[in-house]
Design a protein that fits this description.
The chain is built from 15 helices and 10 strands. By secondary structure, the chain is of the alpha+beta class. It has 3 domains: about 130 residues, GAF domain (Beta-Lactamase); about 120 residues, Alpha-Beta Plaits (2-Layer Sandwich), CATH 3.30.70; about 80 residues, PucR C-terminal helix-turn-helix domain (Arc Repressor Mutant, subunit A), CATH 1.10.10.
Length: about 375
């Protein structure tokens, strides 16, 4: 029975060859791969993690004649690139090379029968790969429309909704939720890394249930199944990139309202990146006071003018940290002193100094509320806590 999916196909090829297999498209972007054991070289490891290989490796591979081959090609090892010997089986549709199947051959050469079996399997892959390429093109078109849907004018949103539906994705009445992936500042090749993560995450979703958009400093996943999608997105991103933040907006009843969920998710991800302890996925609905701050778009001074004097000098950073801890713990002096590992007398001195500099009274509940809000705004605006 022929494979019904690319994953079934690569697993079948790997089982028949008795070794792991990877399927790439013509541009050497990894489409799917089987379960892997050793040996795995640096080229294989990085191509799976990043979903593509380097230009230097591509040049080497093409120098071995893989683009002209009509059958399996033995590619020699290249220690300079960290690459073991491997077998390349081109996937052809007529005269066109559409992709490649790869097997590592180090220490265990493939027999003539194995090569013939792999070549036969590659012939069956052509139709599946053609379908995958067309689906990828549809996702790219719908992704372009997603940009207008989330930030365009009303006419642009209407056109985007039509385009997305025409490519077989969401209807205008679809209930959708936006997820936003945020990487730490200074992440190397951030935009490419975000694209790799989102592409891998979309592949884990049900067909036509998710679209993604890569922006300069964050990624967006629009999905009809927010619960599992959010957890999967975080898992993929954390595995590939390490520390990340994922924010989730609230579900919207129509596609035209997707931008609201997107802005919520973007803010939630920002909070998650700056404030520890909120969990792997930060939901707009669970932001508490941060949700209020996000709606207000205020400044620290607008919440409490006196805080500006504390924020004006880096020397006051210990006082700000003391104040935030004290307010986070509902004004409990004992718990604050314990959390900060200081004597209560030192804590009381700091609190008195804060009152003097900020022109406030920490016994006043209204003042404490305003100061607490001002500190959280300062954090989110990167004025404090960097």
């Amino acid at each position: 029975m022929r494979a019904q999916s690319m994953q079934e196909a690569v697993d079948s090829l790997a089982a028949r060859a008795g070794r792991p297999a990877v399927i790439e498209d013509y541009e050497h972007r990894v489409i799917v791969y089987s379960e892997h054991d050793e040996p795995v070289d640096d080229v294989r490891r990085l191509s799976i993690l990043r979903r593509h290989t380097t230009a230097e490796v591509v040049t080497w591979l093409r120098q071995q004649g893989i683009t002209r081959a009509t059958g399996p090609v033995r590619v020699p090892a290249c220690p300079r690139l960290g690459m073991l010997a491997r077998i390349c089986v081109p996937i052809r549709h007529g005269e066109q090379v559409m992709g490649y199947v790869w097997f590592i051959e180090d220490g265990l050469p493939m027999s003539a029968a194995d090569l013939a079996s792999a070549a036969g399997g590659a012939e069956d892959l052509a139709a599946l790969l053609l379908r995958e390429i067309r689906a990828s093109e549809a996702r790219r078109r719908a992704g372009d429309a997603l940009r207008d849907l989330l930030s365009g004018s009303a006419p642009a949103r209407e056109a985007a909704i039509r385009d997305i539906a025409d490519d077989g994705f969401f209807t205008a009445a679809a209930s959708v939720t936006a997820l936003v992936l945020l990487l730490p500042e200074g992440t190397h090749r951030a935009e490419a890394a975000i694209e790799d993560v989102l592409t891998a995450a979309v592949r884990a979703e049900e067909p036509h249930s998710a679209l993604h958009l890569t922006r300069r400093d964050h990624g967006v996943l629009l999905t009809t199944a927010p619960g599992g999608s959010a957890d999967r997105l975080y898992a993929v991103a954390h595995r590939l990139l390490g520390p990340v933040a994922v924010g989730a907006g609230t579900p919207q009843d129509t596609l035209d309202s997707a931008a609201e969920s997107y802005h919520q998710a973007q803010f939630a991800a920002r909070v998650g990146m700056l404030q520890c302890g909120l969990g792997p996925v930060v939901h707009w609905a669970g932001l508490g006071v941060y949700r209020f701050i996000g709606l207000q778009q205020g400044t620290p001074e607008s919440a409490h003018p006196g805080l500006a004097r504390l924020l004006a000098s880096p020397a006051h950073e210990p006082l700000l940290h003391t104040l935030e801890t004290y307010l986070d713990l509902a004004g409990n002096a004992g718990a604050t002193a314990e959390r900060l590992h200081m004597h209560r007398t030192s804590l009381y001195y700091r609190l008195q100094r804060i009152e003097e500099l900020a022109g406030t009274n920490l016994k006043d509940g209204g003042e404490r509320l305003c100061l607490h809000l001002a500190l959280k705004v300062a954090r989110l605006n990167r004025v404090y806590g960097l």
